[in-house]
Write a structure and sequence with these properties.
The protein is of the alpha+beta class. Helix content is 48%, strand content 13%.
């Protein structure tokens, strides 16, 4: 319908933006059930155009201000790269710790502790992160780097276009700044909400890197910080206090403070002894998808090229999860003949 009078509609959007008369339509609410219940809010087609326009204008500006060790929703920064970087960082910090001069001191306090010279990790996660993002703070953060008034008008229009519901008020009632704040939430599913949500924690990244001098990796609201037990223990209070200032809520069930030699569970992978494993849930999901392909083997003769192309895309997107693991061949052996012979082709050759 939009394309029936495309030029007029595009010009109308631009004219409304210039005259500050643009009206953002309501969102379509969708509830998804995958690993948990998720509330998805999709903009109308006209508003998608505005979101893409703003995204294209501000992505490079905000991306340049973010640290290298944050990987979510950035060009050339993907999940597998995040996990590989974390593993390499652990190896590097272990070597540095072993060579550091304080590891040889025997008379300092704590040196007799068998864990004193070992590497630890602090894992931080937030409760309802997207739904806790404060609109006013987000606007302040963006205005540090963007001064164009027309662009800021569009950004404010998008941020304020969603009315905050009270879905999680009972769950988070102990946090006054959450229940009393009227303007919060960045609904999942927007193109630009991913960028905003990632950038919202940029100040925390800068604080960890430049003020506390810590080594860390962040994927959206999941953070892994690596260092000694003593240094992490001292920094923990400062980190949690900074998070309160950002008006975010920590999830105590997902906060971990353990030795690096133990399991590190992070964004669909687990790391132990410098080896990468895939979550069981990911393996089960792949096997369910594979079972469907086995059923399709019976009707492969009537599949169109478009069907086969779609199946190939779905298959490769899933199998890539296993590609960086240290047990790639073992995961592939879970699958038997149909893919090797028919539908997908000679992938392993």
């Amino acid at each position: 319908m939009f394309e029936q009078n495309l030029e007029y509609r595009i010009l109308k959007i631009l004219d409304d933006l210039k005259n500050r008369k643009y009206y953002h339509l309501e969102y379509k609410e969708i509830i998804l059930f995958d690993s948990k219940k998720r509330y998805i809010f999709s903009p109308q087609f006209k508003d998608h155009i505005l979101h893409h326009l703003v995204y294209n204008e501000i992505y490079d500006i905000l991306d340049r201000k973010m640290v290298y060790t944050t990987f979510a929703c950035r060009k050339w920064f993907w999940t597998q790269k995040c996990i590989l970087y974390l593993r390499n960082m652990i190896k590097k910090e272990k070597r540095r710790l072993e060579k550091s001069s304080f590891s040889n001191y025997k008379n300092i306090q704590g040196a007799k502790d068998p864990c004193y010279n070992k590497l630890y990790y602090l894992k931080i996660d937030f409760s309802k992160y997207f739904f806790s993002i404060n609109h006013s703070l987000l606007k302040q953060k963006i205005r540090k780097y963007i001064s164009n008034e027309e662009l800021l008008y569009c950004i404010d229009l998008i941020i304020d276009s969603y009315k905050t519901p009270k879905i999680y008020d009972k769950l988070l009632k102990e946090n006054n700044f959450y229940t009393k704040e009227k303007n919060k939430w960045l609904p999942i599913w927007w193109l630009i909400s991913q960028l905003f949500a990632n950038f919202y924690l940029n100040d925390l990244d800068q604080f960890l890197k430049h003020k506390l001098k810590l080594k860390f990796v962040r994927y959206m609201d999941d953070i892994i910080i690596i260092w000694t037990k003593e240094k992490l223990s001292l920094a923990k209070k400062e980190i949690f206090e900074f998070i309160k200032q950002e008006k975010l809520i920590l999830n105590p069930k997902k906060i971990s403070f353990n030795l690096v030699d133990d399991w590190i569970k992070f964004v669909w992978y687990k790391i132990k002894n410098n080896k990468i494993f895939v979550w069981k849930r990911i393996k089960k999901s792949f096997l369910r998808f594979y079972d469907k392909l086995e059923d399709l083997e019976k009707i492969k003769n009537i599949l169109t090229k478009q069907d086969i192309f779609r199946l190939e895309s779905m298959y490769y997107s899933r199998i890539w999860f296993f590609k960086i693991s240290d047990f790639w061949e073992n995961y592939i052996k879970m699958c038997s003949s149909p893919l090797r012979k028919g539908i997908i082709g000679e992938f392993w050759n």
